[in-house]
Amino acid sequence: MSIKRLPYLIAVPSLILLCSNTGRADCYDQFRYCVDRSHEKEDTCWERCESRFDHNYEAWDRCTDRCADTADAEWSRCERQEEACDSGSTAENGSNGDGAVPGAEIVGTYQEIPNPQLGDIAMVTNRPDGIPVIIYNPVLCQRLGYNLCEFYKYHEYGHIALSHTTSRRLHPVAVEAEADCWAARHAPWSAVEAGFQWFMQGGGSGLHHGTGRQRAARVQDCAASR
Fold first, then answer.
1. How many whole angstroms separate alpha carbon 116 and alpha carbon 3?
2. How far does the signal peptide extend, from start to end residue (predicted)?
3. pLDDT at 21
């Protein structure tokens, strides 16, 4: 998707981290946001179990076990983020301590804001303080499927990982090609397959993105090098 800058600060729920500084968010800001989001998701999961299985204890146990598994996975991701911070990795500037481009560990460490009015599946933008956020259209995601939406989000995370939100060193065509390739290498296979099928059907065409079939070929080539 195209990269845009927000003309104003987006209003978001209180759980979402607002940085105390006005420059780029440091690595630990992203870690703290990851922790806050993990708590929120775990609480929501338990509330859902309580509302559905108040007097069915066997179902309640199964539901809360799933909550615990999800929480463990979320915490593992946060721990990886913290380890990256401790080792000097900076997902936000597009490289880690040894110059390598960040991988899937950055997924979920930036704000993902639903906007049913968005004219596309997803896009990345910068807040006025320079922090990237991902905007997605929940209506389109529901209509087109979770896996395709996931691929598009990974495409946007690719823009962040590759410093496209802060650098204008590449032509927009190259920028979109790089983000497609990053997503093909890091997104879950189910998401990559959904993206490939969507592009083969002619979806996702754009001035800077190329035709759907060009994107499908790109995804196929990049996924082969995973």
1. 18
2. 1-25
3. 32
Whether residue 96 sits in one domain with residue 19? yes
Mark whether 149 and 216 lie in a shared domain: yes
The pairing of strands 122-126 and 132-136 is: antiparallel
Burial string for 79-108 (b: 16+ CB within 10 Å, else e) reads ebbbebbeeebbbbebbbeeeebbebbbbb
Residues of the domain holding 48:
11-106
**Residues counted in the chain:** 226
Torsion-angle region of residue 219: left (phi > 0), alpha (psi -120 to 50) or beta? alpha
Q: Which domain-ending residue is among 106, 134, 156?
A: 106
Whether the predicted pLDDT of 187 surpasses 50? yes
H or E element: which one contains 3? Answer: strand 3-5
Residues 6+ apart with CB under 8 A from 174: none
* Amino acid 17: pLDDT: 30
Domain-embedded: residue 2: no
Backbone torsions φ then ψ of 102, nearest 5 degrees: -60, 155
Q: Which of 51-55, 61-65, 91-95 has the lowest mean pLDDT?
A: 91-95
Over residues 125-180, the pLDDT tens digits come to: 998 888 899 999 999 999 999 999 999 999 999 999 998 988 777 788 889 999 99
Mean pLDDT of all residues in 184-195:
96
201, 205, 143, 145: which is closest to 180 by C-alpha? 205
Question: How many other C-beta atoms lie within 10 A of the C-beta of residue 153?
Answer: 22
55 plus 130 within the same structural domain:
no
